[in-house]
Write a structure and sequence with these properties.
This protein has 92 residues and is α/β, with parallel strands linked by helices. It has helices spanning 46-61, 73-81; strands at 2-8, 11-17, 33-40, 66-69, 89-91.
Length: 92
């Protein structure tokens, strides 16, 4: 699993490859809004969904937004069924 990051212009952009990792990075980037690039993801399990919920809660504590980009196929279906579009901005 690989995270590629690019903090600039007030946005902390993360490309996720292979799976969703833990939340150890969130406190390091309190001043950035968060963009998660899911183009490299093939699946999300319940643990990953839980991590996303905790990430969203922590981001709200710091007045940050979380945007999910490029969720495709099964990953997008899982997000839709779980109604994550009500909690996150999801972009193609």
């Amino acid at each position: 699993m690989e995270w590629l990051s690019s903090p600039e212009h007030g946005i902390f952009d993360r490309a996720v490859r292979g799976g969703v990792v833990g939340l150890r990075y969130i406190d390091s980037f309190k001043r950035y809004d968060i963009v998660l690039d899911f183009a490299g993801l093939e699946y999300l399990d319940s643990a990953a969904l839980g991590i996303l919920l905790v990430l969203n809660d922590r981001a709200k504590e710091h007045q940050q937004t979380v945007t999910i980009r490029h969720a495709r196929g099964v990953v997008r279906e899982i997000l839709d069924v779980a109604h994550f579009d009500r909690m996150f901005t999801i972009e193609d």
